[in-house]
Specification:
The protein has about 325 residues and is of the alpha/beta class. Helices cover about 40% and strands about 15% of the residues.
Length: about 325
C-alpha cells in the first residue's frame, strides 16, 4: 500500500484507517470538532484551499458522501469539479489512471475518489504526481475511512473520549461492508473496551476482519448492555445471491425495534451510515427517535471531510502545523 504518511510525518493521502497512527486519527477528530460550526455554515467559511481545485472522482453513485465532500471543499474556499463516470470518457474505455493523469495535467491536485473495486484508490495513489493528494471515499468492500472517522466523532461526542469504557455492537452485512471495516479500524485504534459483531453467518466475513471481536448471530443476546449500536445497510442483492431468505426474515432476526433497543444500556445510541432501509434494518420509531444519531453523523461528515481536506492539502502554514 502507498504510504499515507510522508517523510515529514504528515498525512499525504487518506486511503484507510488500518494502521493510521492513533495520534493522527485523534487530531482529525479534534480538528473536526473545532470547525464543526464552520462546516454547518454557522460561521464564515475558511479560505485555506482558495485557488485550489478538488475533484470528486466518483465511479459509483453517492448522495451523502459526494455532497458532504463538495460542501466541505467549498467551505474551505476550493473550487469543486464533480466528475461523473457515466458521462465521461471512461465509457469509451479510458482507465481511471488516465483520467487521473489528465485531470492532473489541468492543474487538479486534490482528488476524492469512490470506486467499486477493492484497492482502486491505492492504485491511483501509486501513480499520482508530486503534490497530488487522494482521499478514499469508499472502494469496493475495503475501506471508507471518512465514514469511520465521522462515526468515531459521533460516538465521542455522545460518550466522551475514553472508548475503553464502551461496548459497541456492529450489526448486519459486515462481510460486504467497507463501512464496517473502517469502523472496526477506528474502534480498535481508539481502544474500545468491547467490540461486538452480529449478523447471519452468511453475512459475516471468514477472514481476520473480526479478530478480537465478540461475534454472534443472536441479536437479542448481543444487544444486552451495549452503549452503542451501529446498524449496517442490507444490500438487497444479498437476497438475490441467496444470502438472506427474505427482507421480512431479516427484519425479524436483525431489525432494530424500540423493544429490542431496550436490551441495550439505557443511554445507548444508534448509528446508521445510510441510506436506511426503513422497516428492514431499523424501524421508523428508532431511526427518528431520541437515541438516534443518524442525522448528527451526516452533519459530522462535513466537518470530518473538511479536516481531512485541509490536512492532506497542507497549502497554508496553519494547515501544515495541523
Amino acid at each position: 500500500m502507498t504510504q499515507q504518511i510522508d517523510s515529514d510525518g504528515r498525512l499525504r493521502h487518506l486511503l484507510t484507517l488500518d494502521g493510521l497512527p492513533r495520534e493522527t486519527l485523534c487530531r482529525l477528530l479534534d480538528r473536526a470538532g473545532q470547525i464543526r460550526d464552520t462546516a454547518l455554515g454557522r460561521t464564515q467559511r475558511r479560505n485555506l484551499l482558495d485557488g485550489t481545485t478538488v475533484c470528486t472522482l466518483f465511479f459509483e453513485p453517492s448522495t451523502r458522501t459526494r455532497s458532504s465532500f463538495q460542501i466541505a471543499a467549498q467551505r474551505l474556499g476550493a473550487d469543486v469539479l464533480n466528475f461523473d463516470a457515466s458521462a465521461s470518457s471512461t465509457r469509451k474505455g479510458e482507465t481511471a489512471r488516465d483520467t487521473l493523469r489528465n485531470l492532473e495535467a489541468m492543474g487538479v491536485r486534490g482528488f476524492v475518489v469512490r470506486h467499486s473495486e477493492d484497492g482502486a484508490v491505492d492504485a491511483l495513489a501509486e501513480v499520482a504526481g508530486e503534490g497530488t493528494t487522494l482521499v478514499n471515499a469508499g472502494d469496493g468492500r475495503s475501506a471508507h475511512p471518512t465514514q469511520g472517522l465521522l462515526d468515531a466523532l459521533t460516538l465521542r461526542q455522545a460518550k466522551g473520549a475514553d472508548f475503553s469504557r464502551l461496548k459497541v455492537l456492529i450489526v448486519g452485512d459486515v462481510k460486504h461492508s467497507r463501512v464496517a471495516r473502517s469502523d472496526l479500524h477506528a474502534l480498535r485504534t481508539l481502544g474500545t473496551g468491547e467490540i461486538r459483531v452480529c449478523g447471519p453467518q452468511s453475512l459475516l466475513p471468514d477472514d481476520d476482519t473480526l479478530a478480537g471481536c465478540t461475534v454472534g448471530d443472536d441479536f437479542d443476546a448481543m444487544l444486552e448492555g451495549v452503549d452503542a449500536v451501529m446498524m449496517l445497510r442490507l444490500q438487497r442483492e444479498r437476497m438475490e445471491e441467496g444470502l438472506v431468505a427474505s427482507l421480512d426474515d431479516y427484519h425479524r432476526d436483525y431489525g432494530l425495534t424500540q423493544a429490542r433497543l431496550g436490551r441495550a444500556a439505557r443511554d445507548a445510541v444508534v448509528l446508521h451510515p445510510g441510506p436506511i432501509n426503513r422497516g428492514v434494518e431499523i424501524t421508523d420509531e428508532v431511526a427518528d427517535g431520541p437515541q438516534s444519531l443518524v442525522l448528527r453523523q451526516v452533519s459530522n461528515g462535513v466537518a470530518i471531510r473538511m479536516a481531512v481536506l485541509e490536512t492532506t492539502a497542507r497549502l497554508s502554514p496553519e494547515a501544515a502545523r495541523f
